[in-house]
Description:
Chain A is an alpha/beta fold.
Amino acid sequence: xxxxxxxxxxxxxxxxxxxxxxxxxxxxxxxxxxxxxxxxxxxxxxxxxxxxxxxxxxxxxxxxxxxxxxxxxxxxxxxxxxxxxxxxxxxxxxxxxxxxxxxxxxxxxxxxxxxxxxxxxxxxxxxxxxxxxxxxxxxxxxxxxxxxxxxxxxxxxxxxxxxxxxxxxxxxxxxxxxxxxxxxxxxxxxxxxxxxxxxxxxxxxxxxxxxxxxxxxxxxxxxxxxxxxxxxxxxxxxxxxxxxxxxxxxxxxxxxxxxxxxxxxxxxxxxxxxxxxxxxxxxxxxxxxxxxxxxxxxxxxxxxxxxxxxxxxxxxxxxxxx
Amino acid sequence: xxxxxxxxxxxxxxxxxxxxxxxxxxxxxxxxxxxxxxxxxxxxxxxxxxxxxxxxxxxxxxxxxxxxxxxxxxxxxxxxxxxxxxxxxxxxxxxxxxxxxxxxxxxxxxxxxxxxxxxxxxxxxxxxxxxxxxxxxxxxxxxxxxxxxxxxxxxxxxxxxxxxxxxxxxxxxxxxxxxxxxxxxxxxxxxxxxxxxxxxxxxxxxxxxxxxxxxxxxxxxxxxxxxxxxxxxxxxxxxxxxxxxxxxxxxxxxxxxxxxxxxxxxxxxxxxxxxxxxxxxxxxxxxxxxxxxxxxxxxxxxxxxxxxxxxxxxxxxxxxxxxxxxxxxxxxxxxxxxxxxxxxxxxxxxxxxxxxxxxxxxxxxxxxxxxxxxxxxxxxxxxxxxxxxxxxxxxxxxxxxxxxxxxxxxxxxxxxxxxxxxxxxxxxxxxxxxxxxxxxxxxxxxxxxxxxxxxxxxxxxxxxxxxxxxxxxxxxxxxxxxxxxxxxxxxxxxxxxxxxx
Lengths: 322, 501
């Protein structure tokens, strides 16, 4: 009798314990979520290789997010296809706030260049960095001002290097052409540094690159930056006029935001927006971005969303005309 | 002189020395792990070192860079799998040597060659950084295209005994290099809608597949307990006097080739190793031994791939253009630390160059010591029964390849190219030319198209450097057969004369 009791007691108690365990799990997944997000580690997808500028920005911000949210934020690099591989992966993840990603300007460009990327698949949670475009010529170039360069480019084709085909800097060259009616012929290189170097070495007539990429060579006197394609002058090159000051209404450049797969629960969304905004204000983050020559910003999603959509339609028409 | 003292005094700090030790251990480990490249290790480490003092951070990163270029030779020699792409040429002679029971000798020779190359390259960094950077600045698209064309002529020497099969393999490699988005206009080519392929085939995965995985497959199929013994004896470790003398010429060739290739932006240890191997073969008295276990070939390749380190650093510092992919990552850290790579750096902070050279010298000495010590421990690994060893190699390759991009497409490519490599091996097609075609094909295409975009055909033909390289390329293809014809004619004439007499 005793043994039979034992025999039946075992499975019953096992079942009871597992049931208890299950209910407690369900409890955590259901009721606990609202109160306690985040309870698990967060993954931050960076669509570029480790060590690059986007990666450094994302990593520094991730470290600050850890202090804000009190969980680990693990950076995962998924590079390839101009960023489309990582973005595609991010879009496929669950919108539960445990997978975030670094959204570069390419997020709104790739869809118009034949990649299967839709900006609507992401919820931007705040812009953190801005990288205005600059146009520069070799130090010994005959062109002293933007107007001289553009005037020459009206009658003949001038070669202008950029960091790669389909890059924001190539788009900036096209945008300049459209505005000024010029024939600047974009020559894509394999990265920003080789593109700048082609101008320093005099292999091309000019280069369009981010302000952080031309600043160093300009300081050494190897390059002459003719204009910055932004609404405001940059702190690293206060003497360089904006294109607008020179009468050309072109404002274009790279940016970086943090985003999540679209459809985040509202409360999770709020927690993240607050944390990202606080992290973007942190000294460590601001210093790193400034040291790398770019501009740290802290733009809320409400303010960023219209810009995000505007950029999307801008690139749609820009690439359609190309 | 004071800059030298100031630069070197920065190293007189126990924390910096500790950083070098940590870097050396980490670097050798990642180097030995197929798939995990020095680039990746430096990229991951840079996330930690950014918050350190610049000199300490540099000590970690540069030492990883140096040490990974020693560690990657071990799997290349022992299991025919390049630990990083820089040791592709090491497999050509290192693995045959190991199969002949001379693994010990191969490992030591390789380590000495690598150390010699590193020192030679550092001399370039210390004495010639600025003039070299001026030369490198002249390498625009047209010049790089011509240099790459010259590189492609090396297919002839890495083809092994059957030139036709070698050319076919190279053609296959060139065809593979067209996969991915067009480098200028960006249209998709043979990507079959796979996003991961838009940057081209995952190069590291292809190499590991063609060399390592294919070899394991091959061994598994041919394995008979009695005949196919894996490498068990290491034989002698130290080269004897005659072998030491044999190493001198390839060391000189390797240093020269490595210094030039290293200084050219974006060209790194893989290309240098292959080039030096074939240049050395052409000038050797025993070219027939190359690819079958030649100490000369091993030395030339390893000296050259490591001789690129110093010039790469000097191009990066003096020009602000990454000399190779590791330097691209390191440049990010330098900028954050407040060093602005460019000619101005040498004027503003001359001591930094000596600090960097000092770190790299210490790293090389330490790593050379470690590799001579540690390699004896590797014996244990090879005493494993072959089926365990195969499992270990395959698992390492799988994990390492996945870790590069967190991508299953890469793993799939590795396995597919393992099978492709197996068939090539069985049919007598050498894998070296495929890799050469794959690396150089896309470089040649992108740079030629850029050159044409900038100034048409005349852009290439008016550049003295480009025309020079193209002529050398032409000569290196056309001269050997012409010479052979000329010699045989002369020999004919002589025999005719003797008969007449």
